[in-house]
């Protein structure tokens, strides 16, 4: 029995007082942001525990008193609240880390050694805490990087040892959290191709709920790592305590949410350890990716806005910059095009009025031409039949039309029917003794192999060297990893982790040489969307499903975690809605088109051209402003989303009818948010279809107070199922 336990038991009826006295003498390490605190404490036995997670207290010295006011049942192990739960000693629940030492022993105990707080700038600080095993030369340093204003924390760990031989890491979480509440409500996501970001919100019960993926690449196809946990009750947009979490990792992840015997919630998040025992040599550092979280005690809306601001400022490539509107040819031509057709599309790009033409799949491969998705992937020379003069002539033609040119690649993957596969069968991930199994007729290249890394880097480098004017890249990733085996690796269990590290190495090289070129993170839709990848990409492709009705829901869910500037939304022929509805939905992010422009009815074309002009007047607010989700399509017949600029002087509000039943519509006004109560505003309808008058009076002026308390009625109904409003301050 430890001295601390004895003290507690002996204290008897005076337990409350004694506990407070005991705890207050212990080293307490508050990790605070503007409104949030995670508080660590070093126990008498040098264990590092979490004693508080939640709203920041005004007196930091009172954190030490928190454990004393709980009367939960006994923690036999004294480590349910460990800041990083080791396994093989006293632990009885899910560990954050488990290892086999060089001598074969499987036990680990981690004791506090020291901590260091570093202030990076006004907003950012970093705490590191060193933990060591008293019995083995093995240590873990926990890192907590805090972003004060944004209430965001990034947490990761670095594992090292000085043992005689390699240590095997069986589990290696990035973060371990401990939350106390009366109940915990998890919002998680699942999906499949064209059905990404389907939410489920349920109460967590005792035991473990694991969110994970084992797909290797296109890792989010069935489940992304983003989630939220509301405390006590489901947080609304403006009320309630909620934690948003995500792993900054583009491969297999695993997030365990364990409701423990004391009714507290343990969260362990990191790379998935599935089939991934990692053999760590002495003296080498094993760094986990960052687990990212933000905590709000004012509901989901604030959590999103904090995360959006943080992401634009610190993570997303050129997050605070501009984006290019575009015309893509994927759905207009699929694989069926040639130079002549593309030249026509370049002139359509100009006519439409967007910034760039994006040439999609099908432009490459000769021995096995890429005329469908069954051949040619991997052979990145322009197809001579379709493009006898290569890409450069198209880039020049684009210049002549005063538009930019972008191109699609899928550099990590290969069709078996390709020269690349014939020449380098050992570059492909596949089991040597088993039949090949394909995802979209293709296999994944082995990015653990430096030669493959050079090849993948070379695809981008060659394109940009040969065509310095190339202005945009769509980087696709359509296959998952089947038959995980690398001809390059000695340790097969390193494959999933080293693949992602190899990918980041390539992206790092690309960004060193080409820091600015915008790149879309596409993965057969939203198969790869995360904040590690977004450091190298300017935007992501949420889904191949561009049916605008579906997109209202999907973009809504993505918007909890990702700012609108990252969401590439294209107007296509999916869905039954008119062009206006489709365009309005695409405007709620980074707008593009993927339609046959020269088949548009004259008024449809005119509408699109005018919409691009309108978009130019509001895109800055959508990309860089604050987003407010006003009316939830899962709870109402009307979806409404608003963006407001920093000065609270202009905004744009998108409203849609999401149900077709008799007399449905915006019967009541929709309360606006984020305005200045004392300012006066004019609300005008924009993006009207040619010849359609608005039913709203453009001259009426309302105070911010009125708009936020009473609201505004966009008059959404059948016949007006998509209404865009622009709001401007009247001086
Ligand atoms: C994936 C992408 C699409 C398109 C095709 C091309 O499905 O998500 O946008 O680029 O590949 O094959």
Number of helices: 13
Low-confidence stretches: 1-23
Q: Main sheet, how many strands, which sense, barrel?
A: 10 strands, antiparallel
Overall pLDDT confidence: 96
The CATH class assignment of the domain at 9-314 is: Mainly Beta
Total count of strands: 35
- Provide the structure class: alpha+beta
Bound molecules: alpha-D-galactopyranose
Straight-line N-to-C gap: 72 Å
CATH homology superfamily of the domain at 9-314: alpha-galactosidase from lactobacil brevis
Helix content estimate:
10-25%
CATH topology of the domain at 9-314: Beta-galactosidase, Chain A, domain 5
Task: List its traits.
731 residues, alpha+beta, Beta-galactosidase, Chain A, domain 5, Immunoglobulin-like, 8-stranded parallel beta sheet, 13 helices, globular, disordered N terminus, binds alpha-D-galactopyranose
Set down the secondary structure blueprint.
Blueprint: H1 3-11, H2 15-24, E1 28-32, E2 36-42, E3 48-55, E4 97-100, E5 111-119, E6 124-132, E7 138-147, E8 152-161, E9 167-179, E10 184-190, E11 198-203, E12 207-212, E13 227-231, E14 241-247, E15 253-259, E16 265-271, E17 278-280, E18 286-287, E19 291-296, H3 299-315, E20 326-328, H4 330-333, H5 339-352, E21 356-359, H6 392-400, E22 404-409, E23 413-414, H7 419-423, E24 443-444, H8 450-466, E25 472-475, H9 495-513, E26 519-521, E27 539-540, H10 548-561, E28 568-571, H11 579-587, E29 590-593, H12 602-624, E30 626-631, E31 638-644, E32 650-657, E33 680-686, E34 701-703, H13 704-709, E35 722-729
Parallel strand pairs: 20-21, 20-29, 21-22, 22-25, 25-26, 26-27, 28-29
Antiparallel strand pairs: 1-2, 2-3, 4-9, 5-6, 6-7, 7-8, 8-18, 8-19, 9-16, 9-17, 10-11, 10-13, 12-15, 13-14, 14-19, 15-16, 23-24, 30-31, 31-32, 32-35, 33-34, 33-35
